[in-house]
Amino acid sequence: MLKNIFEQADLSKPETIPATLVGVHTVIDCATGRPEEPIKMVDWEGKVALIQCAKAMGIQKYVFYSIHNCDKHPEVPLMEIKYCTEKFLKDSGLTHIIIRLCGFMQGLIGQYAVPILEEKSVWGTDAPTRIAYMDTQDIARLTFIALRNENIIGKILTFAGPRAWTTQEVITLCERLAGQDANVTTVPVSVLRFTRQLTRFFEWTNDVADRLAFSEVISLY
Questions:
Q1: Residue 184: pLDDT over 90
Q2: Which domain of life is it from (predicted)?
Q3: Tell me, what's the pLDDT at 145?
């Protein structure tokens, strides 16, 4: 969803975009599709329409949030789309900044902290995953600093936290802060791979397979 204080647009409906950009000089594009939406509809078709509209309406600066290492995993649909969007934005001629993100610290609350407090299962993999999570407020602050620095226009930046955490380290920290043990269910990466291949056989589960591929790659960092 794209918003300003006057209008609201839906990237799955490109015809709603132009009115949102009236009077806007900078676009900070952090939109992405919901889990129930096809990845391509919002994260590719919607972004292409947004970039084209921004170009046509003379937007002065465009910030695009991408994914760390998206250029290294073309086999993962979401990461391939992010990389293709980066290239499309560069070719558009818009004055832009691309920011690749590793992970949001706030996402850990619902994924680990709340289930542990409610004595519910938390899920992880058996891979030594390490992700340098960042607070979304820090990401916002750094983004506005980047917008004021003309020397990084047209460049790709990577925002990452000062430390990369494994899933087990995150769970251990949450256990310590909650004062209770977690009920951990471990899903082997091999199971993710098998499930992804299985869902590829059915057209209606293709998008599930795409998201499983993303989860599998993230688990290898």
A1: no
A2: Eukaryota
A3: 95
